[in-house]
Design goal:
Blueprint: H1 2-22, E1 58-62, H2 67-81, E2 85-89, H3 95-102, E3 111-115, H4 119-124, E4 128-129, H5 135-141, H6 144-149, E5 151-152, E6 155-156, E7 159-164, E8 167-171, H7 182-192, H8 209-212, H9 214-217, H10 225-228, E9 230-234, H11 239-250, H12 264-272, E10 278-281, H13 286-293, E11 297-300, E12 312-322, H14 328-337, H15 341-351, H16 358-361, H17 364-367, H18 370-380, E13 382-384, H19 395-408, H20 412-427
Parallel strand pairs: 1-2, 12-13
Antiparallel strand pairs: 3-12, 4-12, 5-6, 7-12, 8-10, 8-11
Helix pairs in contact: 2-15, 19-20
Organism: Paenibacillus shirakamiensis
Subcellular location: Cell membrane
Membrane topology: Lipid-anchor
Length: about 425
Amino acid sequence: MKLKKFTVLLAALSMAISMTACGPKKSAEETPAPAPDTTTEQPTADKTEIKPEDGATLVIWESKDERAFTDEIAKQFTEKYKVPVKIEEVKPDEQVTKLTQDGPTGLGADVVIFPHDNLGRAASAQLLLPNDIFADETKKNNTDASVQGVTYNNELYGYPRAAETYALYYNKSLVKEAPKSFDDVIAFGKTFTDKAKKKYGIMWETGNMYFNYPFIATTGGYIYGKNGTDKSDIGINNAGAIEGLKAYQSLKEILPVKSGDITPDIKRSLFNSGDVAMDITGPWELNAYKQGLGDKLGIAPIPTIGGKAAISFSGIKAWYVNAYTKYPNASKLFAEFASSKDAQLLLNSKVGSVPTNKEALESDQIKNDPFVSAFAAQTVNSVPMPSIPEMGNVWAPVNAALPEIWDNNKDPKEAMDKAAKQIADLNNGAK
């Protein structure tokens, strides 16, 4: 009797196991969206199974300058995945701040794009989903520097799409040969600049630290020590930085314009009309300048400062997925699709960007382009912006100090000592 009961029990148990093993499995799109706490380890999905969620629609934040690319890549994505995409214009350097406010309320974009120096702040606030499904593909296909730039605390978050630095644009009909040094720039400017006629030998955003970092770093300054990771070591006011900033200040002689009166639109108009002979800016202006100057356009590395090759900031611009998105699968698919080899070549053709995809870099489209090659040459002498959250404390103080030096002829040491103290106070929690 006991044996009969045992046999019946065993049969029931076997049937239960069988039903469990053969039961339906949830597809990727049926899996609930992960909570925004990215510190919890999530199982990695198989990229071959990922599909957009039913009824998914996406909002993408993009800059005005690169909107032409995103309009096209969004159209291609919708054609392939049948997911509608809406694009909203938000400046990349403002997106993390906006996402901090809009993400938790459900108003943020599903996919955002910003320079890598904002990554630490976004990741620390748990605003982003890791790049998990496409991690191996991202690491394999892109340059080591770009992968490093979109990684924080050993976690890959971004989907790299472009490497950025800036270089010297010049009008070949006005400048026969690109100047080698800023002394050469001053010598030319003295023969060309005429403030009354609004003609200037060179123009760049003199109040923006991003474009003026060469005057800090080339002669020995830096933002933070230990390759940008030590917030307690601030180097914007050391002897090397002050030496370079004195060279910066001397250029006011050939660019007698207030820093607040130099905007990208004004500068672009003057350069394209031939009233500015040289400009320091990034690859996002390439398309507009090629249209404006045609064969007269030249690009070269930034002139030397104090006899040394100019050190510019470099940054990796990448897509990131909002941790609060309702459609994580569709968002990750878009970020991957819009950062592929073909997407990066499209971006290059639209705005002149420098790819991070290794195959794209080896394509004829890139290798035979003298302009992209010039940016690549400047990249050799560039350093990545720090990505620790405290990088966000640097911009406002330095961007306030530079106009003081430029517009009001303030002593560089005094202005940068003040900025360094403000940064230190912010790093230590001062309000």
